[in-house]
Structure formats: C-alpha cells, structure tokens
C-alpha cells in the first residue's frame, strides 16, 4: 500500500517545528532511511546533550525515548513522513519526506536571509554601475571591463558561498543536525 499523502504546508511546518522531529529526520537521512529505535534515541540524546553516543546517560536516553515513542514518532508516522513499527522498534523514512525539503531552509539567529543579502548586493552593484555610467569618481577611474568583472565576481562568489552554506544547513548531512530557529525540544 502506498502511503504517500500530499503534505500540506501546515502539516510540514508542524512536523518540522520541533527540534526532536528534525533530529529524527536528520538521522534517518544519514542512515539511508532506516533506523533501529535504540540507535535513533542514542544519537538524538547525544546531539541534545552535546556529548558522544558513548557518554549518553540512562536518564538522557530515557527522556528522549519516552518523548519519541509516545509523541514524535507517532506524529511523523500519522503524517506519512515515516513508518514506525513500535513492536519491532524500527523507523523508516518514506518517500513523502522528500516533500519536506522545500521547507528546510534553516536560518540561524545570527544570520540574515539570503534574499536580503542578494537584495543588498544588487543595490550595491546597481549603484556601482550607475556611478560608472554617469562618470562619478572614483567609479569612472575603472575601465568598463574591470567593473563588469567585479560585479560578476561578487555575484559568483556569493553564489558559491550560498551553495556551501545551504549544503551545511541541510538535514541529513554528516555530523550533528544544523541549528534551527526555534521549536521546542520535547
């Protein structure tokens, strides 16, 4: 039976609003979409407490296990993003999880959205081009080809940095999950 519902924006945001659910998705993406509940709990407890998996205490593990088993995994299962078999203790990522990618633009608290960055860069470059065109000093001192190369280089470098940033902030990349902009832990 194909359980691939069309995720609404509301459901996607609700599922991603909680750090622990994002951690579940991050781990499943790292584990090729399949995980044992015990492994999942151990990794999430380690991430939450900023320790290695071997340093996770019984209390930390129990707290994460209880929240996942009673709340988060059933919610993700009901939404069709994962399949959770409570009897076997297995968690499997479904195809519907790929629909969440569009909602995963994580913007840390100390960062600006890329749209505002590019708007500022565009205004700066437009000012530079206009200054060069009307012969305003110091812009008129540069040859036109040098000005064009400068504007092109600024946008190219910005795009490369943006792509690297996005790859680092994507769920499922190696290492710990990226920090989000909020959402409760439990």
Task: Characterise this structure.
- The protein has 186 residues and is mainly alpha-helical.
- Helices cover 53% and strands 6% of the residues.
- The chain has six helices and three strands.
- It has helices spanning 9-16, 19-30, 37-49, 58-78, 114-133, 144-168; strands spanning 34-36, 82-85, 90-93.
- Strands 1-3-2 form a three-stranded antiparallel β-sheet.
- Helix 2 crosses helix 3 (37-49), helix 3 packs across helix 4 and helix 5 (114-133) packs antiparallel against helix 6.
- The longest helix is centred in the last third of the chain and has 25 residues, at 144-168.
- The radius of gyration is 23 Å and the shape is elongated.
- Mean pLDDT is 83; it is low at 180-186.
Strand content: 5-15%
Radius of gyration of CA atoms, rounded to a whole number: 23 Å
The shape is: elongated
- Pattern of helices and strands: HHEHHEEHH
Q: Gap between N and C termini, in Å?
A: 31 Å
Structural class by secondary-structure content: mainly alpha
Query: Would you count the extended β strands for me?
Result: 3
Which strand order do you get reading across the main beta sheet? Answer: 1-3-2
What's the story with the biggest beta sheet? 3 strands, antiparallel
Low-confidence stretches: 180-186
The pLDDT mean sits at 83
Helix content: 40-55%
Count of DSSP H/I helices: 6
